[in-house]
Amino acid sequence: MDAIINEYKKHGVDAFYRIHGHDYENPHIDIVENLLKSAKEEWNINGDILDLCCGSGEVSHALEDCNVDGIDPYTKELYEANTGNDCIRMTFKDIVEEGIGKRYDFVVCSYAMHLCERSMLPMLLYRICEVTGNLIVITPHKKPDCNGDFFREISRIKKERSTMVLYENRIFNV
Ligand SMILES: C[S@@+](CC[C@H](N)C(=O)[O-])C[C@H]1O[C@@H](n2cnc3c(N)ncnc32)[C@H](O)[C@@H]1O
User: Fold this and answer.
1) Of 41, 59, 117, 135, which is most buried by a Cβ count within 10 Å?
2) pLDDT score of 1
3) CB under 6 Å to ligand 1: residues?
């Protein structure tokens, strides 16, 4: 497969995952696992976790001692087969329109938040801050910056070229 960025350009992001939702694998899985190992040690991740844009279960595997649910519009069957956890089919737009509807100790979004259209990001962050005090974003880019009205960065860990940022909710005591 071409570098994923070329595939996104060729098909569009949603069409790419509609085609590859059953065989998606993150080639940087080792980095994701390594970052989350550090997060467990340094940020005391436990309790109820939402794996947002859960793919084939990369984050959920690394946090398998927690109680994890997944959300992803395209990888439900693959995720559920790999993890045994439930996956709710929702796009970013669905979340903006309907909300998440369950409280979590942490929401973790790995390699995916940058796929949300910039104009929709504030409303997505609002919906996330309705249900959690703690948002963790893992990204291979500088984007997205989730600091703003709803979340503020409190810590970050970098490994190789990926960054994991912990944000705290600024408005609700969830
Ligand atoms: C690069 S993968 C990341 C998967 C996993 N979190 C990981 O770390 O490997 C991006 C994920 O975003 C999901 N996705 C794509 N478009 C989306 C959208 N419009 N709304 C919500 N999720 C979307 C895909 O189905 C895919 O599982």
Assistant:
1) 59
2) 45
3) 13-14, 17, 21, 24, 26, 32, 53-55, 58-59, 72-75, 91-92, 110-112, 115
Which helix (DSSP H) or strand (DSSP E) does residue 40 occupy?
Answer: helix 29-43
In this structure, which CATH number among 3.20.20.70, 3.40.50.150, 3.30.230.70, 3.40.50.720 belongs to the domain 4-169?
A: 3.40.50.150
Ligand 1 mean position, distance from CA 90 (Å) = 10
Mean predicted confidence (pLDDT) in 56-64: 97
Given its phi and psi angles, is residue 113 left (phi above 0), alpha (psi -120 to 50 degrees) or beta? Answer: alpha
Domain extents for the chain?
4-169
d(CA 76, CA 68): 14
Q: How confident is the model at residue 20 (pLDDT cuts 50, 70, 90)?
A: confident
How far apart, in whole angstroms, are the C-alpha atoms of residue 95 and residue 97? 5
Which residue has a Cα nearest atom 27 of ligand 1? 55
- Residue 70 · residue 82 · CB < 8 Å: no
